[in-house]
Every structure is written in C-alpha cells, then in structure tokens.
Amino acid sequence: MVDELLILCDSSAIAPREGGINANLALLVAKPRQSTYQLYPQDWFNSSDLDFGYQWITRVAREPQTGRVHGEGFRLKPFELDESLRQLAPGTLPESDFYRGV
Fold first, then answer.
1. How far apart are the two ends of the chain, measured CA to CA in Å?
2. pTM of the model
3. Which of 14, 34, 79, 88 has fewest C-beta within 10 Å?
C-alpha cells in the first residue's frame, strides 16, 4: 500500500475571492495506511494575481530526502512549499511574468 498521496484538487471549502474569482486550489495529502487525509488550501496561488485560465499548478511531489513538497505548473516555473504546505518557501517564488505575489 502507498504511504502518501499528494493530490491537487478544487475545494468547495475555500471561499471565493472578491469579484467572484473562484480560485479554490488545494493540496490533499492522503495517508491510506493511517486512513487519514488533510486539505491544504494553496493560499499563495489562490490569492495571487495569476490568470487562472492561463496558468495553473500541474504536479507536486515530496522530495524524499528533505520531506519538502516541490511543484511545477503550466506557465509557472518550479516552486517549493513551506512547512505549512499553504505558502511558498522563502526565496522560491515561481518565475512568471504574471506573478505579483500575495
């Protein structure tokens, strides 16, 4: 059995932003052996000024030696999440002409 699954998903638990922008991306961390899961809204992404129809996260993986979660995206350069799994690690902004940050 797999120890951990990292799944990118939309979550209805994340409130829409002002102006009706529906940025509700979350990282679901499932641990089948423990029969548990946790949902981590991607605050750095959901509150950014990215064009969500033009840029999005495509995959994430946990680096086995450090335990850090790294990701890549469409029209986003590779990034790393901090310990909260909700924000980017310091100094690891995704390089994009459109990213203005939180």
1. 38
2. 0.86
3. 34
